[in-house]
Every structure is written in structure tokens, then in C-alpha cells.
Amino acid sequence: GQEVTKEELGGWEIHARSSGAVDNVVDTEPEALEEVRRFLSYLPSSVWETPPRCPPADDPKRRDEHLLDAVPRNRRQAYDMRRILAAVFDLESVFELTRHFGPSLITALARLDGYPVAVLAADPRFYGGGLTAAASDKLARFVDFADSFHLPIVHLVDQPGFVVGVDAERAGTIRRGVHALAAVYQATVPFVSVIVRRVFGVAGAGHGNAQKLNLRFAWPSGDWGSLPVEGGLEAAYRRELEAAADPVQLKAEISARLEAVRSPFRTAESFGVEKLIDPRDTRPLLTDWIGDAYRLVATELGRRGPEGADRVPPLPPRAGAEGALSRRGRWRPDPAPARDRPLHPRLGPGDARTRRGGIPRPCDRHTRVRLQRAAARDVGGRRPGRLP
């Protein structure tokens, strides 16, 4: 056996820092209830609705001068990503979740011009912002959550890649990282990436699904590729460096050659990113984007079914039909003589219905004739005929 206290076995610290089962930690019960109220304020009442917009309390065109020097020129130097988030999103609207678990990844809810959004960002003060096994689990869970409740995702990217090493391999970083990338590529909500600094490796490829109409903007500090020059040069040119008479000089020559083609302007010129932007323009750009994002969200309401069948919202009943919606969103008409009620309360006599959910679909001429004959035969209170 093992002698442990209740706190050591299942206290807040082990679940907030190690298991990730607890998202936020506060000192008192009133504070916990306030956290819950604030969390729910970003979400819709159900998956059939869009997240609620609050009256804008901040200038959508605000430009923060701090963003010009927020990222240090030294690529090895860390910086405060949370200060950048405060400058980009509505004032005091950033609500961070699961801060102590997988700390190299920041997950938060925030608002842009009053609209709720889900926020992803790296924290370079932990593992340089690299994805660990815990951060991968955190990423997958948060993206699935945002996708379920129709929250557009804003990703401020500084991703050096997956964390490597013996401990990372034992923790299953590869397996968990693939799960995180699958969640990103399967998400259906609008996604915008703002490349703040690094995007490297497979983890960097998961900053957003580039196969969809998801936008990518980059700051002039953006730096991307398969491997970073720092550290990657020694690995890629190891044989040449070992065989060189002066490895230091050869390394400097190779580094200068790679630096010459490292500029983010080359990627922008080949349309690898939509636009290189002034960091101060990040908020105005995102507040313009969010209105379009919510117009798209309104067309994707509903539950996330395996084949998308559940995404169709419940249709309103046809004019004059009496009844009510069931808990599953299906129309239950009041009993009435068969000759006095239509084939389906939401459909006209020229439409067909599916067997499940009452979702309308077009009819061909033969199907319409069969329905009309079935309705004519159905007298005496029997149910209307169904499609085979």
C-alpha cells in the first residue's frame, strides 16, 4: 500500500497541474461561482444557437504601440504572450482556462468587438512554447470544445515544435500530438492564425487547417520552416561540418546562406500567408474578420454528428400546424383526422420526408404521385403513408 493524504491523492493541485481534470482554481466558493458565471457568459444556451454578443465596450480599431516591440529580436529570448492577448482582444475580456496544466499552451475565452472567441497561444516561458504531451491533450480538448459551441478560434502562433527527449517519448507526445493535430484539422469553426514568431515542424503545421478557408497573417517577426536554423543547422549539415577543415567558418557560411532566404516576405510573395501586417493592426484586422466569421457560424449550428446529419437545426412547423417540438427537436403534431392534416407538419403535399428527423429532401415526380395516392387512401384516422 501507499500512505497518502486526501489532498495528495486527489486534491486540487494534482488535478489542476498534473491530470488536467480541474480547469481553474480559486480560493473561495463565491469566487468559484463567479468563475462559472463568467465562463457561461461566452457560450450559447444550446448548440442550436450562436454565442451571445455583448455590447462592444472597446474601440475595434484600437492600436497598441506596445505590440511594435512585444517580440524581442533575439529569437532565444522569451516574452509575455498574455500582455499581447490583452492588447489584441477587448479590454478585460480574456478569461484563461487550464493555466496550470500544459503551461506551454495558453487556452482562453475572449471577445472581439463583443463577439466571443476561443483563443490559442503559446507561452514561450515554458519549453519555449513547444507542445508537450500535456499541452497536446489540452489543445485537442479545447479545440473540440470550441467546435462544439461554435466559437471561432484565434491562434497567436509561436510554435517551435514538439518537445523531444526521453521524458517526452515516455509520455507519448507523438500519439497525443497526432490527436491534437487531428482535432485542429477536423474543426469546422472559422479559424484565423496570427504568426507572431516561430512555426516549425509537425507541431507548427497544426497551427490551423490550411486546406480550408482559414486565414493566416504574419508579423514581420515571423519565422518558419521544417527546422529552426538554431540547432537545426548542426543536425542537417553534420557530415559536412565534421569533414570540414574549419567547421566554425563553414557553419558561419551556411548560416549566412540560410539567413538570406529566411525573410517572411518571401513566403508572403508566394502567398504562403495572406498578409504581412503591422503588429498594431492585429486588433483592427481581427475585429473586421469576426463579423464575417459569425455569419458563417450561423450556417453551421447544431450538434456535431458523425456524418453531419445532426447539424441541421430543427425546422419551424408549417403555417397552421398544431403541436410541439420534442426534446430531440422533432415536431410532434397534435392528433387530428388524417384527411385534415398534411403528410408532415413542416412539409407541403409535394415534398417528401426522410425516415429520421423529418428533414425535407426534394421529390421526383414518381415519389410525389405515390405520396398523393397514399394520402388519398388514408382515411379513418390511420397514419399517412411513409416512404419505403
List the helices and strands and how they pair.
Elements: H1 6-10, H2 12-19, H3 29-40, H4 81-88, E1 95-97, E2 105-112, E3 115-122, H5 133-148, E4 153-159, H6 166-170, H7 173-186, E5 191-200, H8 201-205, E6 215-218, E7 223-225, H9 229-236, H10 238-243, H11 247-260, H12 264-269, E8 275-276, H13 282-297, E9 323-325, E10 331-333, E11 352-353, E12 360-361, H14 365-377
Parallel strand pairs: 3-4, 4-5, 5-6, 5-7, 6-8
Antiparallel strand pairs: 1-2, 2-3, 9-10, 11-12
Helix pairs in contact: 5-7
Structural class: alpha/beta
In total, the number of strands is: 12
Strand content: 5-15%
Relative helix content:
25-40%
Taking all Cα atoms into account, the compactness measure Rg is: 27 Å
Largest sheet: 8 strands, mixed
Residue stretches low in confidence (pLDDT < 50, at least 5 long) are 336-362, 379-388
Order of helices and strands: HHHHEEEHEHHEHEEHHHHEHEEEEH
Average pLDDT confidence is: 80
Alpha-carbon distance between the two ends: 63 Å
Overall morphology: globular
* Tally of contiguous helical segments: 14
